[in-house]
Specification:
Layout (H helix, E strand, L loop, with lengths): L29 H4 L20 H6 L12 E5 L6 H9 L4 E7 L5 H18 L2 E7 L6 H5 L2 H5 L3 E7 L3 H4 L2 H5 L1 E5 L5 H13 L8 E3 L1 H11 L3 H18 L8 E3 L1 H8 L11 H15 L3 H13 L4 H16 L5 H16 L4 H14 L5 H14 L61 H16 L2
Parallel strand pairs: 1-4, 1-5, 2-3, 3-4, 6-7
Length: 463
Amino acid sequence: MDDLFGPGPDNEDAGDGAASDRGQSPRSPLAVRMRPRTLDDVVGQQHLLGQGSPLRQLAAGTDATGPAGPSSLILWGPPGTGKTTLAHVIAKGPGRKFVELSAITAGVKDVRRVMDEALTARDLFKTTTVLFLDEIHRFNKAQQDALLPGVENRWVVLVAATTENPSFSVVSPLLSRSLLLTLRPLTDADIEGLLLRALADPRGLNGKVELSAEAMAHLVRLSGGDARRALTALEAAAGVAFGDADDAVDAAVMIELKHTERALDVASVRYDRAGDQHYDVASAFIKSIRGSDVDAALHYLARMLEAGEDPRFVARRIVISAAEDVGMADPTALQTAVAAAQAVQLIGMPEGRIILAEAVVHLATAPKSNAAYLGINKAIADVRAGLGNGIPAHLRDAHYPGSKQLGHGQGYKYAHDAPHSVAAQQYPPDDLVGRDYYEPTVNGAERDIAVRLERLRKIIRGS
């Protein structure tokens, strides 16, 4: 297995950006060895890589934004979508020096040291320093402010990466001096292409292993659109496959589904996001919430997430369930569901699983009512049947000229002038007077709503 992973990277043609490849060897992680050297090698993010784009011009050593514009970048996207890769590619441009800092461990002192060295490199050696700052959202305001002189005076080209919305996590002066580029999650096709390239590339597995269709599908599914995770999983599965292989066999070793399962300690979940399992599991998930079985609901939630289902799809289903199945029995359920959907969009996975779980527990354990759901369906059915002819004259708009001559607004009772702000008058069209659409249950908050609704209808209808 000594030569399984092929030769190390060749840095001879890396130019001044060779520092970005230093430290690599045949034993470096596969994700490191397969890091693209040019923008043409980057998988995904094609919306940012068109000819003449700021990224291409910056990687080529020119500034697309003009002499007065920003030359620094903030890359916002989920993990494994290429933020670090793009920084390394930019650093390979002519006359570039690459410096990497992590906001987890670096402080103001480290930033100022880099700025001083960058100023020296620019003035004495005509070298531009590319400062890659990972997880910039972990820097506080004072630490981010320390970056401003270097960015504003172009001592450095700052490439800052974040998985959180920069509008909330990056100070405004720094944001206004940088280009904000949003990276999209990699598609299944992107991940599959990346894995195929890693199998054949001399820097990767060098044609010494092959991947079965089932194993490929498993790796793609578990990657969750994360290139780094996909390559790490492939490397681990290759190690297991070689451990099972006969040393005397010269042919390429086949990575089977069993190898990926053993390597990742995750069983393959039969789940086709475009097929029956997608709909079957989602259906079971919603029906478990509706049936108040919190444990089953959490199981199906875990099953979807572990199969690589888009958490935004899950969040949308939860929001619908909150309105359809919990409804007014617990009006706070919809607030929880909407907040969960927004939070998942903000922070992503894997932490998003915790937020989704909280929303599922709330909905599954809440009292249930589909009265609002049934009410709107009945109202729509009447509209489609042609009922609800006209609008009572006293409810019509009386603000435009000539409306009063038509009787609009005459006899209208302003509700706030009546006792308890409830006035007795006709609101629905003539043919729907007395028609009840909303029929609250006796569950949860609707128990009190039912009592109040009965009193309101008696006052309004004068019965």
